[in-house]
Amino acid sequence: MTKRKRMTEFVPGRGYTKEDWDEVREAAAFEPTDEELAQARPFAEVFPDLAESIRRGRGRPKSAAPKVQVSLRLDPDVLEKFRATGPGWQSRINAALREAKV
User: Fold this and answer.
1) At what angle are helices 76-84 and 89-100 packed, to 10 degrees?
2) Is 0.85 surpassed by the pTM of this model?
3) Alpha helix locations (H) across 1-102?
4) What is the C-alpha radius of gyration for the chain, rounded to an integer number of angstroms?
């Protein structure tokens, strides 16, 4: 396996021009002036909706009663019967255990 070298200098024939390369290097070297920094505002102030969506997070909401992962040994035939019932077999095992609890 070969290591890829980080490109730090212009190499002709790579799908971009010297002008493209110079433009990227110039943008990367940008440093804001004191005046520009004084005018800067917080991200949440400039984009409040986007900031709120990031703050809320992604994915499934947290459950009020999260399930607990356990390791449980079951007889193969019992497990096979539940799995044969299709998707949701773990929930059905949970319901059967709930019904059987004392």
Assistant:
1) 120
2) no
3) 18-28, 34-39, 43-46, 48-56, 76-84, 89-100
4) 29
